[in-house]
Amino acid sequence: MQLIDLQAQYRRIKDEVDAGIHRVLDHGKYVMGPEVETLEQRLADYAGVEHCIALASGTDALLVAMMALDIGPGDEVITTPFTFIATGEMIGLLGATPVFVDIDPVSFNISPAAIRDAITPATRAIIPVHLFGQCAEMPEIMAIARQHELLVIEDAAQSLGASVAGEPAGSWGDIGCISFYPTKNLGGFGDGGMMVTQDHLRAENLRLYATHGMKPRYEHHVVGINSRLDSIQAAALNVKLKHLPEATRLRQQNADNYQELFEHAGIDQQVVLPTSGESMEHVWNQFTIRVPGQRDALAKHLGEKQIGHAIYYPIPLHQQACFQVEGESPLSLPETEKACKEVLSLPIFPELIDDELQQVVGSIGDFFAQQQRSAA
Question: What's the start-to-end Cα distance of the chain, in Å?
Fold first, then answer.
């Protein structure tokens, strides 16, 4: 059993995807074709925003967002260390300083209290990451940002369709960044990304920076980059976006089933199950349990049973070599460091069937039964 079965996803909508791709092949507008404009319009409706700007990747979305907001040397950007490298990497690439703060141990998302404590006169922006399909505490984060006149860029790479207090991920801050990497809830057949915003002038500026700073053709107003979504990717994503609400429902159903199966098996005390916070709409990009003291042994056991699993993330960003500063004392973020030793993500993709869910939980139950026998 795979952690995510992309072939099963394709087979379910194969005819629609193939037809969309062939339309692109027929008209030949392979870059920024009509499918891209359609995707931008449809995703704006889905995500509850006024403007969408398609790009070549979610990483580019973070980069272009910060370029357009003039974030650079001398600026500090507060973010979480419990995320993929791209979040901190793009801050550093522009010469700004990533300021890593600790996480909430229940949601795994950035702690608003830790954000408040980290603000200095050099702070320009906050980048909350909506991790594993659940939003960060955006009402509190936005209140902090307004109080201190800070920019907010939402990294919603894993959480398209999630919401807090009825407001979708990406719609709270100045700019939201989305990824279409194949393993995401709305995943393409390669890389892709999107920036979202409520502001018309900001949307025009974002589009400018993503296309060489060029408007009209061969007139360049800023130094930008080349980041454009291919029409073939957009064609596939238009099909998958149509099926996304049902795919999200199935992910949520799988999460509920996991909770029941763990409780029924009596092993919900050996692991810490993930929860959906109050006022949160969780879209379950990952179903991530905590396994205190035995995570690596359980992961090995699942591997031997050929059950897909993953560790997101084994090394926090503040401990990565690329973010170490010579002469500075190592940063201590205890909740993040503890999570990195305990988290284990299990299959939750929409095409999972009940027997497979039972197989996952049964294998975990077998592991703990073996541990108890060994200790007896």
Answer: 32
Cβ burial, residue 277 (10 Å; 0-12/13-18/19+): middle
Q: Which two tokens stand for residue 117?
A: 């404590």
Let me know: does 195 contact 123? Beta carbons within 8 Å: no
Helix, strand, coil percentages in the chain from 3-state DSSP, rounded to 5 = 45, 15, 40
Burial class from Cβ neighbours inside 10 Å (0-12, 13-18, 19+) for residue 123 reads buried
Find the length of the chain. 376
Strand 167-168 versus strand 97-100 pairing type: unpaired
pLDDT tens, 176-199?
999 999 999 999 999 999 999 999
State how far the Cα of 19 lies from the Cα of 15, in Å rounded to an integer.
6
Instruction: Look up tokens 């009402």; give the residue.
Output: 139
Residue 371 and residue 252: Cα distance in Å, rounded? 31
The enclosing H or E element of 117 equals helix 112-118
Cis, peptide link before residue 313, omega less than 30° from 0: yes
Mean pLDDT confidence for 162-166: 97
